[in-house]
Design a protein that fits this description.
α1 crosses α3, α1 runs parallel beside α4 and α2 crosses α3. The chain has 4 helices and no strands. Helices cover 59% and strands 0% of the residues. By secondary structure, the protein is an all-alpha fold. The two termini are 19 Å apart. The chain is globular, with a radius of gyration of 10 Å.
Length: 71
């Protein structure tokens, strides 16, 4: 589910020592969208989740999310 995915994104970001602003710069996704992703809000396009996951080197499937695997 998106809440678990958001928690995984937050954890991966923090493990890498990145701020939300830094992740925003790396992905081209606004900081407000990064916040929404970390909260597991469904108003964010799955493509944004995929970009963030790819940037952080994590798999969407590894979180149990019902989404395609990011390669």
């Amino acid at each position: 589910d998106l809440a678990r995915l958001g928690a995984r994104v937050r954890s991966a970001r923090q493990e890498r020592g990145l701020t939300q602003r830094e992740l925003s710069t790396l992905t081209g996704i606004t900081r407000l969208r990064i916040i929404a992703i970390e909260r597991g809000e469904g108003t964010v396009a799955i493509e944004a989740y995929a970009i963030v996951a790819r940037t952080l080197g994590i798999s969407l499937r590894a979180t149990g999310a019902q989404t395609p695997t990011v390669q």
